[in-house]
Amino acid sequence: MLKWRVDYAKKVGGTMSLATTYAVVDIETTGTSIDGTNRMIQFSCVFVKNGQIINHFNTMVNPLMPIPKEVQHLTGITNKDVKKAPLFEDVAGTIFALLQGTTFVAHNINFDYRFLNAELERVGYPPCELQGIDTVQLSQILLPTLPSFKLSYLSEYLNLSHLHPHHADSDADATAQLLIFLLKRINNLPLRCLELIASFQNSLLMQTRLCFKESLTKRRHMPNTLPAHLQEIGGIVLRRFELTARAQQEGRYPRDEAAKKQLFANVLEWRPAQIEMMDYVHSLFQEKDKSRLVLEAPTGLGKTLGYLIPAAYTANAGGTVVISTATTVLQTQMQEQVLPLLQQILPFEITAAVLKGSQHYIDLEKFSWSLHQPQGKQTRLLQLRLLVWLTITKTGDLSELHLTKYQNPLFDEIRHHGLESLEPGSVFHDYDFVRRQRTYQANADLLITNHSYLLNHVEILSGSRNNLIIDEAQHLSSRALATNRAEIDFDELKILCDSLLVKIASRISFAFAQLEEQQFLTNAENREIAGNIRLIDQRIPELRNKLIQRFVPKNSIKQEFFESIVPVKRLRGFIKENYGSISYVTKAFANIDQEYQKLLQRFEQFKSADRLDKKAILFLNEFFELLRKLVACRQRWLRLRLDDLEKQEDETVVWLSLPLDHPNAHLRLQFGLLRVTNFLRPYIYEHFQHVLFVGASLLLPDDTEYTLDQLDLPHDTKVVQLPGAFDYHEQSLALIAADAPDVTYDLNEYVAYLAETLKNIVLNSNRQTLILFNSLAMIEKIYQLLSDAGVTLQREILAQGITGSNAKIMKHFRLSKDAVLLGAGTFWEGVDLPKDRLELLVITRLPFQAPNTLINRVKYHKLSLEGQDPFQNIALPEAMMRLKQGLGRLIRTPTDRGVVILLDSRVVTKTYGEQMKKVFPTTMPLKIIKSDEIRKQLLNFWEKR
């Protein structure tokens, strides 16, 4: 037996060829742990050879143990299905024999291969010693822009036959089809790509790399001709830069109904409210004088095309239209989903450029350098994915990878740091993606950006003929406040300076002395840089201690966390008293910034000329990363300028925070605007001829002034509210629990009520459910109670902050059919879940903001001094707007049906309850009931279907 294993092991790690037989395996089991406690319940294998499926093998397996309910629910395999099936020991010999001489393939090979071998050994067989390929990794490399690599998603995306997901026979067949597709795709990769991927021998699972090696061997004997749309630059294959010049074409805006119907023919359905919106937007852009329009376009109306069509006609006539939306995700959605549809409709060509901060783009020079450095397996896998992506992407925008998080250290290495960081002599300079972005911008009809970019780059975007559309305009003021917020972390500054000084003067490893030897910098430059960093390093602790003495009362020492407003007038007094130290630090920052830019440019020149050894390059990369972080602190430090503080005294809030429960706490001085009054109008709107403010949830019932104040607009600004597109009376139902305990009286009673009520709802209604909370702390409490009650064993519960990142949870939820999502914060808005992706919405509590946060205390106090009621003027309208946004998650298309449940009795018991009720769509049936009636109401609603 031992001899067999040694002899067979020699075959592993060889080569593959067209004659290779691939055994594509999928198994279903009682659990995922490979610890001997779980058993197989189904084994399936599909054999592939010469790019074709040649045979199948499938068997159910009796595990001699009950199949857990969650596994039955997932796979559809019941205890009855396996009761008369053979035991694994009865089929192990057949399976073992079938697999001999094949290459083992699985979608997540680490599970299927290891579990199968564990089972073989359990019943007395030797483990298989096969070459293995993982189709998950192949898919990640070859389909780099997909948001998911689950087999069900890949099957749908590639139109593969996959009739019964999570049945081993269907999964194995779909994986076999996937393998055939991926092997063909490998053969179509550029030769240079193949060479780079094949060179990273140990980065992929088992023998997955041999797929690339085999293709490379064949391709080396064939002509190496790149397709016309590709080019090789600096050893990396890139898509060629294609620029369509702006050209005014014939096309007049369709003014009458017949012309619009002709335009929409066979592409868009006729929506009267959308037509009305188009005409409003077109009229706005025809105004001779500067004009502003606030327009609420409810969900389902076709808002985006409602403004894009008239915007395109305006741009075609010679203007430029800037479109700003709330997030980069919405930018991507517009680019990938809406713009292609717009182009289908229009009788002329339109060009659009997507504008984001430089940090969203890949720096080709840095990426190229990273390929030659030692990397871990996960980072190397990511690099392989990027190599293939670079043959596809036109933009270099890293968000095209659709990752749920960008936390791999590689992204910090390869992110772009702006045009000023480019080296003119670099081989990649003329192909840089941020430079491409600026070129696209100069030639585009439509500029699509986000609120943050607009607020930070308005001077680049604006022009006398430019028109601005602010989509999701309800987010502009909060984004403006966030953009204007700054924080000086005194301890972070000290740590950065200490780290830099250690690197500069290290006697153990590489340091500045060696850089002098390689003539990268002079001794005078060494002393200049170190001297300025040392000055900051010495002055910061001194200023930190003085701030504590001045602003942190001695009796605060008993608190765990100290946070307090610092009156601007008192802060100005402090700055005047310590003007010498503060100005020295300010000057040192300026000197360091100047040296940083100079040395960064020199670094690129020395690298291009090959004048630095590997140790020097590694050292300087680490040093520049630290120095970049220090330089980034300069702009925040400038918030201490006396002139600026004096100008903004009435609208600026400054606060100081210091944790007191541990010795290494960071002292932070934070600055921010209280409101956007007299900020957005002069800094943003005045740069544009016409400005459209649009959103699905812009206006409160019977109140336009709140929205106009939030947008820093005069009260005589034109406001239009278009009619909704849905029949809420037939499509929806709202239930309000009149007996829910008041959370403001007894928190423990409320938590117990909430857990019990939610348990009854999710166990008695098998619908895709979103449950909205006001805090992560409450989600944690409820999730734990639901788990203790066994609910998580019977329903799939996804919980924000517990079961994964927001993006991962949302991705999982979109792919599910009867999951429950517990969410707060961003889940209240911007979540599009049409049809059966969301059928039940539970709002656990009216979304009032916490009144005792420092910022809210200041806002409320300031309003009180002005003789206004903070609750009526801030707290209530904010909660009503938030509730409106939350309700908007439920019905997204004319065919949706759904129920919203509000577990907060204050709508019934408080005087402001009537105002809250007005937020619900006017035709939505609204019932005030007891909590124990919810189940019956849900059953009645769904039976109507």
From TrEMBL:
<feature type="domain" description="Helicase ATP-binding">
    <location>
        <begin position="260"/>
        <end position="524"/>
    </location>
</feature>
<comment type="similarity">
    <text>Belongs to the helicase family. DinG subfamily. Type 2 sub-subfamily.</text>
</comment>
<dbReference type="InterPro" id="IPR027417">
    <property type="entry name" value="P-loop_NTPase"/>
</dbReference>
<keyword id="KW-0540">Nuclease</keyword>
<dbReference type="Pfam" id="PF00929">
    <property type="entry name" value="RNase_T"/>
</dbReference>
<dbReference type="GO" id="GO:0005524">
    <property type="term" value="F:ATP binding"/>
</dbReference>
<keyword id="KW-0067">ATP-binding</keyword>
<dbReference type="InterPro" id="IPR011545">
    <property type="entry name" value="DEAD/DEAH_box_helicase_dom"/>
</dbReference>
<dbReference type="InterPro" id="IPR012337">
    <property type="entry name" value="RNaseH-like_sf"/>
</dbReference>
<feature type="binding site">
    <location>
        <begin position="297"/>
        <end position="304"/>
    </location>
    <ligand>
        <name>ATP</name>
    </ligand>
</feature>
<keyword id="KW-0269">Exonuclease</keyword>
<keyword id="KW-0547">Nucleotide-binding</keyword>
<keyword id="KW-0239">DNA-directed DNA polymerase</keyword>
<dbReference type="GO" id="GO:0016887">
    <property type="term" value="F:ATP hydrolysis activity"/>
</dbReference>
<dbReference type="Pfam" id="PF00270">
    <property type="entry name" value="DEAD"/>
</dbReference>
<dbReference type="InterPro" id="IPR006310">
    <property type="entry name" value="DinG"/>
</dbReference>
<dbReference type="Pfam" id="PF13307">
    <property type="entry name" value="Helicase_C_2"/>
</dbReference>
<dbReference type="InterPro" id="IPR006054">
    <property type="entry name" value="DnaQ"/>
</dbReference>
<dbReference type="GO" id="GO:0008408">
    <property type="term" value="F:3'-5' exonuclease activity"/>
</dbReference>
<dbReference type="InterPro" id="IPR006555">
    <property type="entry name" value="ATP-dep_Helicase_C"/>
</dbReference>
<keyword id="KW-0548">Nucleotidyltransferase</keyword>
<dbReference type="InterPro" id="IPR014001">
    <property type="entry name" value="Helicase_ATP-bd"/>
</dbReference>
<dbReference type="InterPro" id="IPR013520">
    <property type="entry name" value="Ribonucl_H"/>
</dbReference>
<dbReference type="InterPro" id="IPR045028">
    <property type="entry name" value="DinG/Rad3-like"/>
</dbReference>
<dbReference type="GO" id="GO:0043139">
    <property type="term" value="F:5'-3' DNA helicase activity"/>
</dbReference>
<keyword id="KW-0235">DNA replication</keyword>
<keyword id="KW-0808">Transferase</keyword>
<keyword id="KW-0347">Helicase</keyword>
<dbReference type="InterPro" id="IPR014013">
    <property type="entry name" value="Helic_SF1/SF2_ATP-bd_DinG/Rad3"/>
</dbReference>
<feature type="domain" description="Helicase ATP-binding">
    <location>
        <begin position="284"/>
        <end position="499"/>
    </location>
</feature>
<keyword id="KW-0378">Hydrolase</keyword>
<feature type="short sequence motif" description="DEAH box">
    <location>
        <begin position="471"/>
        <end position="474"/>
    </location>
</feature>
<dbReference type="GO" id="GO:0003887">
    <property type="term" value="F:DNA-directed DNA polymerase activity"/>
</dbReference>
<dbReference type="GO" id="GO:0006260">
    <property type="term" value="P:DNA replication"/>
</dbReference>
<dbReference type="InterPro" id="IPR036397">
    <property type="entry name" value="RNaseH_sf"/>
</dbReference>
<comment type="function">
    <text>3'-5' exonuclease.</text>
</comment>
<protein>
    <recommendedName>
        <fullName>3'-5' exonuclease DinG</fullName>
        <ecNumber>3.1.-.-</ecNumber>
    </recommendedName>
</protein>
<dbReference type="GO" id="GO:0003677">
    <property type="term" value="F:DNA binding"/>
</dbReference>
